[in-house]
Amino acid sequence: MRLALFFAKRYLFSKKSVNAINIISSISVIGVLVSTAALVIVLSFYNGLEKFILSQYSIFSPELRIEPAKGKVFSTKSEAFKTLRTNPKINSYTEVLEDKILAEYNHQQFIGRIKGIEPESIHSHASQDMLFAGKLDVRIDSSDYAILGAQVQANLQVPLQGYDNHLSLHIPDKNASASSINPLDDIRTRNIPSSAILKFQPGFDDLILVPIDFAKDLLNEYAHISAIELYGANDNSTALQKEIQQLVGSEYIVKNREQQNPTLYKTVRSEKWIVFFIVTIIGIIAIFNIIGSLTMLVIDKKQDMLVLNSLGANKTLIQNIFFYQGVLIALIGSIVGGALGLGFCVLQEKYGFVQTNEGSLFDAYPVDIRYSDILIIFLTVLLVSIIVSYVASKLSIKGFKKVEELDSN
Question: For 245-266, how does the pLDDT look when each residue is reduced to its tens digit (9 = 90+)?
C-alpha cells in the first residue's frame, strides 16, 4: 500500500512528458473542487431559506402545544394543569380557544379562524415587528379588541380607527334548541373593534386574535379550551416536552413546532435534499474526468509500468497506483472545494454581498452553515470518487495490458 501510494503521489505532482496530461489532471481536481463547493453553497443557502421560512411560521406557532388526544376541547380543572402553570421551566403559558367563524364588515364576508388567547400572554412571545399597523393588544382599558390577519383585512377592509371599525363575528350555536323556529336564533353574533393588522404570515392570514373571554362568550364554550400554548424558559424543548407529556398523561398530546405542522417541515426539507441530489448528479459527471486523467497517465507512464512489471510488480500494485491517484485527486478537490464553499458562506453570512431583489422579505440571501451537511457532502464526494477511481484503475490496467502486448509483439 505504501509503495502504491508513494508512486501515486509522485505521479500526481511530477511533471508529465505530455503537457496535456497536466491539464487533464488539473481539470479533474477542479471538477471535484467546483462540485464540492457548489454543494456546500447550495445546501447552506437552502438551510438559510429553511430557517427563515420556519422562523416566519414560528412567530405565532408556540414552542409546545397541548391538545386533547380525542375531541376538540378539554377542561383544565385537573391538578396537572395547575402545576404546569406554575412550572419555573415555562416562560409563557396561555390557554387557547379556536374555531372557524364567519367574519362580516360592511356587507363583506370572510370565513376565518378565531383564536382566543389570554391578553397578557401576547407580549411574552410577540413583538411589534409582526404588525403591519396598529397596536399589539387584544385588551385596551378593559375593552376587547381583535388583531386581524392580512387576508382577513384584505377581504373585509376594516379600518383601525374611528367609530365604525367593528366587525361582526358569527357562528352556529352548538347548544341551540332543536325546536327553534327562526334559524337566526341559532346563530351567535358578537361585535368587536379591530386594533391591529398582522403582516403576511404563512398559515396565519385567516387568523382573528381576540381575548379568550370574548371567544368563550362567542363560542358558548365557558368550561373548555382547545389547547394550551407554552414557551420554555430555555432552549431544551425536547426534555421539557417529555416532562410535560408525563405530567398530563396519555389523554393529551404535547406537540413541538414540527409536530404542529409536519407538512411544512417535510416540504422544506425534501426540497433541500432534492436539490442536493440534482447537484450531486452534476458533480458525478464532473468527477468522471478522473477516468480520462488516469487513462492519459497510463499512456504517459507506460515505460514506468513496464519497468515495475519486470521488477516483479503484480497487477494489484499497478492498479492501486492509479486507484490512489484518483483518490488523491478527489481528496484535494473536496478539501479545497469545501474550504472555498465554506469561506464563501461565511462571507455571505457576515457581509451579505449576494443581494435579493427589492421588495423581498430579506435584503441578502440567508445562509445557515451546518457542519453535519458539510460532512455528508465530503463523504458523498469521496465515496463517488473512490468508486470512479476504482473503475478507472480497472480500465487503466486493461489499457496497460493491451499496450504491453503490442510492445511484446
Answer: 999 888 999 998 888 888 878 8
Do residues 298 and 17 make contact, with C-beta atoms less than 8 angstroms apart? no
- Cell 363575528 belongs to which residue? 169
What residues are paired with 92 via a beta bridge? Answer: 231
Helix/strand/coil percentages in the chain, nearest 5 = 55, 20, 25
Write the DSSP string, 35-96: HHHHHHHHHHHHHHHHHHHHHHHTTSS-SEEEEESSSS-B---SHHHHHHHT-TTEEEEEEE
Share of the chain above pLDDT 90, in %: 17
Q: Kindly report, residue by residue over 383-396, the tens digit of the pLDDT.
A: 888 888 787 777 66
Q: Burial level of 349, CB count in 10 A (0-12/13-18/19+)? A: middle
Q: Is the pLDDT of residue 152 over 50?
A: yes
Task: List pLDDT tens digits, range 56-73.
Answer: 676 667 889 999 998 889
Under 8 Å between Cβ of 332 and 18: no
Residue that has been written with the C-alpha cell 382573528 in this structure: 208
CA 378 vs. chain centroid, Å, equals 21
Using N-to-C axis directions, what is the helix angle for 315-351 and 2-13, rounded to 10°? 60
Global confidence as pTM: 0.68
DSSP string, 187-212: EEEEEEEEEEEEPP-TT-TTEEEEEH
CA distances from 385 to 28, 169, 292, 315, 377 (A): 11, 64, 13, 21, 12
